[in-house]
Specification:
175 residues; mainly alpha; 8 helices; globular
Length: 175
């Protein structure tokens, strides 16, 4: 089976889970941004934890190979700010916007068109950014296990424990 088919299948499953978890609802998005409803935070952290285990099992079995991207603080900070501003103005992140469109919410079309325009602007600005922003704080291809000098399963276990404690606190505060 080709990689595109795997991508399509996992995309459909992820979209289904987004819809079932109700995280593509506008009120959940705004609640997350206002830190009064952390459903999306819990959904995403759960997804990350499960994916982390799955990816490293596949890596350890030799089925998958990791492609570590370079850590560049300039790009991460600027990209994170743009993502956050866009999410705040639009009320959806890219994945939930596509999910909302799939549910028939046509108001997201304008935001999706804005994302495409932003991607085109980025493509045009890339040569300039490659010489400037994308050189600021270049740490190379690093991972947390490399930084701490431990096996990746140690980091995964610690992250699981921290997230479970965080979930407990979120539930205690009824967020």
């Amino acid at each position: 089976m080709s990689e595109l088919v795997y991508g399509l299948i996992t995309g459909i499953i992820f979209g289904f889970l987004l819809q079932k978890g109700r995280v593509i609802r506008y009120d959940k998005q705004i609640g997350a941004l206002r830190l009064i409803d952390l459903t999306i935070v819990k959904f995403m952290l759960s997804s990350i934890l499960i994916a982390m285990v799955g990816v490293y099992i596949l890596k350890d079995l030799g089925i998958a190979k990791l492609s570590i991207k370079t850590t560049i603080l300039g790009g991460n900070i600027v990209g994170g700010l743009l993502f956050g501003i866009g999410w705040g103005l639009f009320g959806y992140c890219p994945g939930t916007a596509v999910g909302a469109l799939g549910e028939g919410r046509w108001d997201v079309v304008w935001g999706l068109l804005g994302m495409l325009a932003g991607a085109a602007i980025y493509a045009e600005a890339f040569p300039f950014m490659k010489r400037t922003v994308l050189t600021w704080g270049n740490y190379g291809k690093i991972t947390l296990p490399q930084i701490f000098g431990v096996n990746h399963w140690v980091v995964i276990l610690i992250l699981w424990i921290l997230v479970i404690i965080m979930f407990w606190g979120i539930e205690k505060k009824k967020l």
